[in-house]
Design a protein that fits this description.
Helix content is 23%, strand content 25%. The chain has 495 residues and is an alpha+beta fold. The protein has 2 domains: 328 residues, Electron Transport, Fmn-binding Protein, Chain A (Pnp Oxidase, Chain A); 124 residues, 3-Layer(aba) Sandwich (UbiD C-terminal domain-like), CATH 3.40.1670.10. The strands form 5 sheets. Strands 5, 6, 7, 8, 9, 10, 11, 14 and 17 form a 9-stranded antiparallel beta sheet that branches. Strands 19-20-21-23-22 form a 5-stranded mixed beta sheet, with helices on both faces. Helix 4 packs across helix 8 and helix 9 crosses helix 10. The chain binds manganese (II) ion.
């Protein structure tokens, strides 16, 4: 962090960009006009998507496109969180401390507050859906990520609504496809809290007011990705961001629906999830495809999903539309760091001091794979590593694989993890299978066609890969010890 940056307090997307603005390794921009239809994502795939995106790709800077074909006065930001180092910088910590920071934040939530419209930049410009020429896509440059997608999607909308019975709130990110001038489809993976709210409203024959805030403080985007049991039904995940910043998230009452939105957002879509209406996700393309999802494959278009009727769009002057590529490291970080924090919280309660750190690495999408680093202190700790793995599965139900390594393995270097799997692992004795457990529907191998132990799509075989040295054999597994030296004597600027 430079001297200049130390004074920047991040509370929205503009201050986040300002924090990165002096570093071309973290943020670049272009004035070359870009087509939001497939071209924008096609560019960023090479520049910085990484994750499970098809190769070649790489970890790179976030990118702002200043000229969007067909739009005046609109910019698009992509890849803000597509590097773990950048996330750490934006949250004022280091890569290794991120899960601990998140764990502490979820334990010490700070509830959001409501400010008036005059203090809500997101309401500087208002477009009412009742205006005859209102058209979502004429106002907002939502990218279509690949040519075969069901349509343009909002990929980084913070969806916020209240439980119609209790008034408690929830914020989550969902797949939102633009279906018409004032219509957006919303896909819920089963069990999501907002869907529970929607079902309650629908059972009462009512619409569920919802706001979609786009372009917000990255602390909100990361906090929004916590899931139960860490944040149970009724836990407003905006309070995680409040804790991360030591300051409540500011909300504002929407202009045309009865719900709040994030006051410092770039763009807010105000709408209602209408009861008893379902829409075919690919009704305009009939490709059978939705959009690229985080496991690296394009999700199948759903036959019948809920619909949002949009009532208004509000935005800042000269707004920044924020988007991501589903399979990029942006997803790995948003989903994975809360997963790491959730696992740490669970194992620390049960086995204090045993698990040193947790990493949900890029190839595991943030959700499907966790690497746990443990320290066996005595013979009595032998076997506790597998108990830690079972706790990890309890902490996050969508987790499929847990890899266990010792304290001398770098969990941020998958080469080192694979070395442990090569020299400290024997397939027949070091693997534990837990077949027939429901995991996540977007893993294409979790399917009866792939394995007879999967009774339904989304049911998988969870597995533990124990790459730790048995305590009694530790003496046989010492890494070659090199002499500690002062490299700077030889290379003064060595880092
Ligand atoms: Mn929730």
């Amino acid at each position: 962090m430079t001297e200049q940056n130390k004074s920047i307090e991040v509370n929205d997307i503009r201050s986040a960009l300002a924090l990165l603005s002096d570093d071309p390794k973290e943020l670049i921009s272009t004035d070359e006009p870009v087509d939001p239809m497939a071209e924008l994502s096609g560019v960023y795939r090479y520049v910085g998507a990484h994750g499970t995106v098809m190769r070649p790709t790489r970890i790179g800077p976030a990118m702002v496109f200043n000229q969007i074909k067909g739009y005046q006065d609109m910019r698009v930001l992509i890849g803000l969180l597509s590097s773990r180092q950048r996330v750490a910088k934006l949250l004022g910590t280091t890569s290794e401390k991120l899960p601990f920071l998140l764990k502490d934040s979820v334990s010490n939530p700070i509830a959001p507050i409501v400010v008036d419209s005059a203090n809500a930049p997101c309401q500087e410009v208002v477009h009412k859906a009742s205006d005859p020429d209102f058209d979502i896509l004429k106002i907002l440059p939502a990218p279509t990520n690949t040519e075969e997608d069901a349509g343009p999607y909002f990929t980084l909308g913070m969806c916020y609504a209240a439980d119609p019975e209790t008034g408690e709130h929830d914020v989550t990110i969902h797949r939102l496809c633009i279906q018409g001038k004032d219509e957006i489809s919303m896909y819920f993976v089963p069990g999501r809290h907002l869907d529970t709210f929607r079902q309650k409203a629908e059972a009462a024959g009512k619409a569920l007011p919802i706001s979609i805030s786009i372009g917000v403080d990255p602390a909100i985007e990361i906090g929004a990705c916590f899931e139960p049991p860490t944040t149970p039904l009724g836990f407003d995940e905006l309070s995680v961001a409040g804790s991360l910043r030591g300051k409540p998230v500011e909300l504002v009452q929407c202009k045309h629906v009865d719900v709040q939105a994030i006051a410092r957002a770039e763009i807010v879509i105000e709408g209602e999830l209408v009861p008893d209406v379902r829409v075919q996700e690919d009704q305009h393309t009939h490709t059978g495809k939705a959009m690229p999802e985080f496991p690296g494959y394009t999700g199948e278009a759903k036959a019948a999903i809920p619909l949002i009727k949009v009532k208004a769009i509000t935005h800042r002057r000269h707004p920044i539309m924020q988007t991501c590529i589903g399979p990029s490291d942006e997803h790995t970080n948003m989903a994975g760091i809360p997963t790491e924090a959730s696992i740490l919280q669970m194992v620390e309660r049960a086995l204090p001091g045993f698990v040193q750190n947790v990493h949900c690495p890029s190839p595991g999408t943030g959700k499907y794979l966790a690497v746990l680093q443990v320290k066996k202190r005595t013979e009595a700790d032998e076997g506790r590593q597998r108990q830690a793995a079972l706790l990890a599965f309890s902490a996050f139900s969508e987790l499929k694989h847990v890899m266990l390594v010792d304290e001398d393995v770098d969990i941020y270097d998958m080469n080192d993890v694979m070395w442990a799997m090569t020299t400290r692992y024997q397939g027949d004795v070091s693997t534990v299978f837990i077949p027939g457990v429901r995991c996540h529907p977007l893993d294409p191998s979790s399917d009866p066609a792939f394995t007879p132990s999967s009774r339904h799509h989304g049911i998988a075989c969870k597995a533990i890969f124990d790459c730790t040295v048995p305590y009694a054999l530790k003496a046989n597994f010492q890494r070659s010890k090199f002499k500690e030296v002062d490299v700077k004597r030889f290379i003064p600027d060595f880092k």
